[in-house]
């Protein structure tokens, strides 16, 4: 009894240490990202010139620099920006004269919703197709699934998005092609953003299912005369789905950043479109905020997946 309790406490300490290390690594990664983004933006030019007009005098331009703190050294301004960011103040948008934090609060939910819809579409199509390809190994279904995976992983997102708009919007007129509204507005952008991940789900599910279907316990279940559907979905899929679900968590993190291109093509009011608009207008504070928030979302999701995977598989945290 005491030995089991001691082992349980020891495993809990190791898991806590693993979580603490991942959190520290995430904070360090985000800090490095902030340094790269901030000083990269510094190299693009004088931000005061963006706010100036044709009638702005040199004295007025200098006053703008002083008002924005641009007269201070870059490392001092980075320190001030970092301290303000920690407190939730990400600056003001020079083009819209609004708080960047307020703009992010409006845009982040749209990006999260699109990424979640993309993940749902990818899992709903990719996993069943992978199961079918494994069960119908080396048949026409398997060959179709492999061809679909190759196309899905090689087709550029922007081309897929444009073709979907052309077919379902311009030619057939059955689905909306821009903006955010009802469920029908999610269909095309969700499919466009999920095609690459969908192909990954299909290939991973197929390979996992083939490995499990060739195992001894599945062969034994078939020898016992169990229903084939029961063998596939209860015995085989239950053991093959673990790496697929892990891939799903990582994929969701990737979809958050992959949404940028799709959001621009479909005029989706999320972080991607906000980032592109800010780049066009050289709105430095918005550029910094969107990149940092995108990086933060990716890091948070990746960290959560790592922690959950370490909880499921003790060999990771013990290693």
Structural summary, described in words:
With 319 residues, the chain is mostly helical. 80% of the residues lie in helices and 0% in strands. It contains 13 helices and no strands. It is flat and about 90 Å long. The chain starts with a helix and ends with a helix.
Report the end-to-end length measured between terminal Cα atoms.
26 Å
Largest sheet: none
- Quick one: overall form? flat
Strand share of the residues?
Answer: under 5%
Q: How much helical structure, as a percent, in the residues?
A: over 70%
What do the pLDDT scores average to? 77
Oligomer: single chain
Q: What's the Cα radius of gyration?
A: 25 Å
Question: Helices, strands, pairings?
Answer:
Layout: H1 2-42, H2 47-51, H3 58-68, H4 74-86, H5 100-135, H6 140-154, H7 157-171, H8 184-213, H9 216-223, H10 228-265, H11 271-280, H12 284-312, H13 314-318
Give a nutshell description of this structure:
With 319 residues, this protein is mainly alpha-helical. The protein has helices at residues 2-42, 47-51, 58-68, 74-86, 100-135, 140-154, 157-171, 184-213, 216-223, 228-265, 271-280, 284-312, 314-318.
